[in-house]
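Following up on my earlier thread - several people asked me to post the actual chain instead of describing it. Fair enough. Here it is, all 146 residues.
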Amino acid sequence: FLGTFGEEGTGMGQFDIPCDMQISQEGMVYVADRDNSRIQVFHSDWTVSHIIDGQVSDDSSFTHPEGISLDLCGNVHVTGDGSNSVTVFSASGQFVYKYDQTQLKRPTGIAIDSAGYSLVVNYDSNSLAIFNPSGTYIHSIGGFNN
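Reply from S.P.:
Thanks for posting it. Predicted structure:
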């Protein structure tokens, strides 16, 4: 055990329900900070690098991030169950695109395979939605379509 960092709160390096994390090949740590509606990005020494803020008024907005995954290009894919979306950002936090949202019903988790296809957990439809590398819906496994 090496220790812990962070505390409850809204400031940089503070969390309000951290839900998921990923570590990039460069050693950057991405943390889904659910109730602060943001992704906090840390250097390997746990100092804050930058924040990807979901509380903006454009296409890059997301709320309550619960899942994050990194693709082979280093882009950050964020599931937002409050916004029924998967939003993609560059490693530096610039908005790239959003997935096709018509098949998303409270997405809570995400994994990206070696070919760039995404599997998204659809909590409210008890299914996995599969998307191609550009975020276009392919099909679902399990669940129901309502």
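The CA atoms of residues 111 and 119 lie 5 Å apart. That should answer part of your original question.
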